[in-house]
UniProtKB/TrEMBL annotation:
<dbReference type="GO" id="GO:0032580">
    <property type="term" value="C:Golgi cisterna membrane"/>
</dbReference>
<dbReference type="Pfam" id="PF05679">
    <property type="entry name" value="CHGN"/>
</dbReference>
<keyword id="KW-0333">Golgi apparatus</keyword>
<keyword id="KW-0472">Membrane</keyword>
<dbReference type="InterPro" id="IPR029044">
    <property type="entry name" value="Nucleotide-diphossugar_trans"/>
</dbReference>
<keyword id="KW-0735">Signal-anchor</keyword>
<protein>
    <recommendedName>
        <fullName>Hexosyltransferase</fullName>
        <ecNumber>2.4.1.-</ecNumber>
    </recommendedName>
</protein>
<dbReference type="InterPro" id="IPR008428">
    <property type="entry name" value="Chond_GalNAc"/>
</dbReference>
<keyword id="KW-0325">Glycoprotein</keyword>
<keyword id="KW-0812">Transmembrane</keyword>
<keyword id="KW-0808">Transferase</keyword>
<dbReference type="InterPro" id="IPR051227">
    <property type="entry name" value="CS_glycosyltransferase"/>
</dbReference>
<comment type="similarity">
    <text>Belongs to the chondroitin N-acetylgalactosaminyltransferase family.</text>
</comment>
<keyword id="KW-1133">Transmembrane helix</keyword>
<feature type="transmembrane region" description="Helical">
    <location>
        <begin position="7"/>
        <end position="24"/>
    </location>
</feature>
<dbReference type="GO" id="GO:0047238">
    <property type="term" value="F:glucuronosyl-N-acetylgalactosaminyl-proteoglycan 4-beta-N-acetylgalactosaminyltransferase activity"/>
</dbReference>
Length: 774
């Protein structure tokens, strides 16, 4: 037994050594994928002299020839070279007309070749050049267009499974469009490889056809370059394009007009090796970044699997997960050589090495138990006042990602098994979220089982799927205050630009970061609250030298003269304290109306001014100002931020804190997002006037903002409606005047009830004092 035990230890030690090595290598991969790719620029002479090399890949595997034109050399061709072209497992060259030049790509100007369409001479001249200069240097040769994207790692894997010594003509087989049938001089069983998705020729194929290129050019039967290349290959190499049905997926051609401009989370993008056409260079970069993100996600998943293997293996030695980070394989050889926080730290082994199990959480109290939420046609949740609500877009997207990835894994060996399983619909799902470990899901899916070998059949089936998504840890980057604002600026632009691209909505951003924001503040009474507002404004806007102007519309009520006088004195003191800052006020003696108050503030502004309607209960910081400037665009776009509203502190048994707002825990127990509040908004005055402004006939509380929002929605303006975690509404009690109109009164009472406390606390309050309600 001792001998067996010793052998087991040696065996497991060897396995762990290999796993750790793989983990280190994998971690390096993730870092590399996150880095931008540097490249050296070669002109045409450099290319012809064969100065281009790529030391990171197999230099003798694949030569890619990309056909382009002078007008696309510095746009499409450059995008290809800076994305997938850098990862070519061999070499990439660009071919254009004889007068073409470029400082951005390795370009070969083809003598006596122009950019006229169809590019038949250009295509054959490119193949001849590749043959004459590189036929003995590469196994495979690929003809591509400058609007093609290639997943080079997958392409290399595919070609490595094929004997390159034989004649091959690989691509998506075509027979011509329906209206061209019989007009391309193709025999009944003849085909050609479609040029758009890319064409691959083995060395043997290229050797056979190049000596006969002149003959092929003299016998052209159509204007299609790819048809004539296929005819030439069939005649002189004796091979046809690959007929396999899967080639439609592998060499993917999108026939829509907006190909690859919408959401990239598509089945065909995940399955394809080549994708065509990508006419806009920005979509080429966008697709490339998406593919890199998928690789990073794959590497993270691989790292988690390796962590689990390590944890499982070390358990044979009695090492608990919590002790893994300090354990050693042998003396002075730590299992995790780098400490937490260092660049090469392999990750928290206790977190990442946790095995898959729906019982992986150890609950110590009832309060620790994670509740499940039901997802059917709607989301049924205990967390909100309304237990049934619409399924959020982020949750929908997450479920779609899970289903797609699961089906890809399920069908990964479909060819070997002779069956395919198709997803039909998600019947229902349960999910829960643990902020430390990750998310658990139980999915009930309707599927279609298709067997296409042996006894062929198609059977509907229903299966349960158990999924766990593990968090991989948090990355933190420290920035200075000024840098953080700039980073936030760029981040917001980048995120919303991607959202706009995925939704096919051209979102616009105001690039003037110093645009003056005119705060318009209606004020009636509320002196203590006004003191807090002035303190926030002073800290954020005046002391930080932000480009802002404060316009206060001060109501004078004979029943609250003391409040009025205190407010007026504070305004004048602030003006005296900061004489260079623009702070103005207007005294109004009529009955309070928010719509009329904002209109009075508007009268103090110029037609081109940027306005921000705000209430005295709101606190904010500089990031909110950045969002206002970014999201409000003259003549085009209006910003309606969703503010976070705090519940009553007395109801939560907390002391009422009137100090200046710094940071808040945005928790469901503390407050809620005012999704149906539209009073806080930013717009240019000229656009406000165009929309007709507020209904100033409404007296007292509410409704005017809802009417204005509805008119904005119906207009041609783009509306930005999103949460702003740095715009916070501090709780205050509400008094609903019995003299209000019915609609206003009901809205006031509803708001008063909603801001009292969370559903959880309201329920507990009722259970505690239910004897008082009987």
């Amino acid at each position: 037994m001792a001998r067996k035990r010793k052998f087991l230890k040696l065996f497991i030690g060897a396995i762990i050594g290999l796993v750790v090595t793989s983990l280190l290598k994998n971690n390096s991969k993730m870092r590399d994928n996150l880095c931008s790719l540097d490249y050296e620029v070669y002109d045409a002479a450099d290319t012809v002299n064969d100065r281009l090399t790529n030391d990171t890949v197999n230099d003798s595997f694949l030569l890619v020839g990309v056909m382009t034109a002078q007008k696309y050399v510095n746009t499409r061709a450059k995008a290809v070279y800076e994305t997938w072209g850098k990862n070519t497992p061999g070499k990439i060259l660009f071919f254009s007309s004889e007068n073409s030049r470029s400082d951005h790509v390795p370009l070969v100007p083809l003598p006596k070749i122009d950019d006229n369409y169809p590019p038949q001479k250009k295509s054959f001249a490119m193949l001849k050049y590749m043959h004459d200069n590189y036929i003995d240097d590469y196994e495979w040769f690929l003809r591509a267009d400058d609007d093609l994207y290639i997943r080079t790692d997958r392409l290399q894997k595919l070609l490595q499974s094929v004997d390159s010594n034989k004649a091959w003509f690989i691509g998506q087989a075509g027979r011509g469009k329906p209206q061209e049938m019989g007009l391309l001089a193709l025999q009944k069983n003849e085909n050609y490889c479609m040029g758009g998705p890319g064409i691959i020729l083995s060395r043997e194929t290229l050797k056979r056809i190049v000596p006969h290129i002149d003959d092929c050019l003299q016998h052209l039967y159509s204007t299609h370059e790819d048809v004539e290349l296929g005819r030439c290959v069939k005649k002189f190499a004796g091979v046809s394009c690959t007929w396999a049905y899967e080639m439609q997926t592998i060499f993917y051609h999108n026939q829509t007009n907006d190909a690859f401009s919408g959401s990239l989370k598509q089945k065909y993008i995940h399955n394809a090796i080549t994708m065509h056409p990508i006419k806009d260079p920005q979509n080429m970069y966008r697709l490339h970044n998406y593919i890199k993100g998928q690789k990073i996600q794959h590497n993270y998943q691989e790292a988690i699997t390796l962590h689990r293997d390590i944890s499982s293996s070390m358990s044979y030695f009695g090492v608990e997960p919590g002790s893994l980070i300090n354990s050693e394989l042998i003396e002075d050889l730590p299992l995790y050589p780098e400490p937490p926080g260092s660049e090469y730290f392999l990750g928290d082994p206790e977190l990442l090495g946790s095995p898959n199990s729906l019982n992986r959480f150890n609950y110590k109290t009832i309060a620790d138990v994670l509740e499940w939420e039901l997802i059917a046609k709607s989301l049924y949740s205990y967390k909100d006042f309304n237990p049934k609500k619409r399924i959020g877009s982020s949750l929908k997207e997450g479920l779609s990602d899970i289903v797609r990835e699961v089906m890809e894994i399920t069908n990964s060996n479909a060819n070997q098994r002779g069956r395919m399983i198709e997803f039909k619909e998600l019947l229902y799902a349960y999910w829960r979220l643990d902020p430390v470990h990750g998310a658990d899901l139980i999915l009930d899916m309707s599927l279609l089982y298709k067997k296409y070998t042996g006894n062929k059949m198609t059977v509907p089936v229903r299966r349960h799927l158990y999924v766990q998504q593990t968090f991989t840890g948090i990355s933190i980057k420290e920035l200075s205050n000024d840098e953080s604002v700039i980073q936030e600026d760029n981040f917001v632009k980048g995120v919303f630009s991607k959202i706009g691209q995925s939704l096919q909505i051209p979102l616009i951003f105001n690039n003037n970061s110093r645009e003056i924001i005119n705060f318009i503040l209606p004020l009636s009474g509320r002196f203590e609250t006004f003191k807090r507002f002035i303190k926030v404004y002073e800290n954020v806007c005046i002391n930080e030298e932000e480009s802002t102007r404060l316009l206060i519309v001060l109501y004078k009520d004979d029943n609250e003269l003391e409040e009025f006088n205190n407010n007026l004195n504070l305004i004048k003191l602030t003006q005296e304290k900061y004489p260079k800052h623009e702070l103005y006020y207007k005294i109004v003696t009529e009955a309070f109306s928010r719509g009329r108050a904002l209109q009075y503030g508007l009268d103090m502004c110029q037609n081109e001014d940027l306005l921000f309607f705000i209430d005295v209960d709101i606190v904010f910081n500089r990031l909110s100002l950045q969002r206002i400037r970014l999201n409000t665009v003259k003549h085009k776009q209006i910003y309606f931020p969703i503010v976070y509203s705090l519940y009553s502190p007395k109801f939560l048994n907390e002391s009422e804190d009137n100090s200046v707002f710094v940071e808040l825990n945005l928790d469901n127990r503390k407050g809620f997002w005012r999704q149906f509040g539209f009073g806080i908004a930013s717009i240019f005055k000229c656009d406000f006037v165009t929309l007709g402004g507020f209904n100033t006939s409404i007296a007292g509380w509410g409704v005017e903002d809802v009417i204005f929002f509805e008119s904005a929605i119906k207009s041609d303006f783009k509306i930005i409606r999103s949460v702003d975690p740095h715009l916070v509404h501090i709780y205050h009690s509400i008094k609903c005047d019995n003299n209000l109109e019915e609609a206003q009164k009901n809205m006031c009472i509803g708001t008063k009830a909603n801001i009292l406390g969370s559903l959880y606390d309201v329920q507990n309050f009722y259970l505690k004092y239910k004897h008082l309600f009987s």
